[in-house]
Amino acid sequence: MSDILTKAFKKASKLPKNLQEEVARQLLEDIEGELNWDETLFKSHDKLEKLADKAIEEFKAGHTKQMGFDKL
Q1: Which of 8, 13, 22, 71 could bridge to 67 as Cys pair (CB 3.0-4.6 Å)?
Q2: Cα separation of 58 and 49, whole Å?
Q3: Is-above-0.90 flag for pTM?
Q4: Which candidate, 44, 3, 41, 8, places its Cα nearest to that of 27?
Q5: Exposure of 68 by Cβ count < 10 A (0-12 exposed, 13-18 middle, 19+ buried)?
Q6: Any alpha helices (H) in 1-72, and if so which ranges?
Q7: Which domain does 20 fall in, by range?
Q8: Does 22 fall in a domain?
Q9: Residue 28 covered by a domain
Q10: Could you state, in chain order, the average pLDDT of each consecutive group of 10 residues for the chain (72 residues)?
């Protein structure tokens, strides 16, 4: 376990039990989300690669235009 995680657990252990439970639930939810995200990315690698290739082809063909996120 990393030093910072150990430090976080030690600090959390000083909280009232109901807050410890909430911190634990949030942490478990975040961990589950990270694991699911990693799995999703792994499973979609081929599809993402095809989409990237298509985007590069469209860019090279001049079918794209530069714009900021506020213009999407």
Answers
A1: 71
A2: 14
A3: no
A4: 8
A5: exposed
A6: 3-12, 17-43, 45-60
A7: 16-61
A8: yes
A9: yes
A10: 96 97 97 90 89 95 90 76
